[in-house]
């Protein structure tokens, strides 16, 4: 089963973390939460969810994980100002490991300069940013690029997003 690194900080979109987390755990995968610093808790922007952070970014190595999950909300924008977090995300893209990004999650991949020529979807307000990063934007509930990058637009797309992230890990037998 896969060990999934989850880059998350305050103001993540509550359901965009909890729903995929539950789907991945039900499929037998392990979720590990990572922020700039460890030993703390973060809160969702709806105020419904509190998440204990397992590790700070300095305490983890991308090579120790099978996949990366980036929930949306304001969290990806707050994380992408840290070069350590950006480098962590970029390594998954460079190594062609599974990456799951929903809503504003792709903002971290934009900063990592990892989307040139890739197919992706995301929240409509970041469409121009994705296109400027060289990505091909698709206004679809879920898009799977090169059997590696799974993206979705909004919470209403969660059933399709969850299905595809679980299917991709099953295909890769992680």
UniProtKB/TrEMBL annotation:
Matches recorded under Pfam families: DJ-1_PfpI
A GO BP annotation: proteolysis
Keyword Lipid metabolism belongs to the record: no
Keywords: Hydrolase, Protease
Keyword Protease on entry: yes
Start and end residues of each DJ-1/PfpI domain: 3-167
GO molecular function annotation: peptidase activity
Coiled coil: none
Record-linked SUPFAM superfamilies: Class I glutamine amidotransferase-like
Family affiliation: Belongs to the peptidase C56 family.
PANTHER family reported for this sequence: DJ-1 PROTEIN, DJ-1_THIJ_PFPI FAMILY PROTEIN
Protein name as annotated: Cysteine protease
Taxonomic source organism: Ureibacillus sinduriensis BLB-1 = JCM 15800
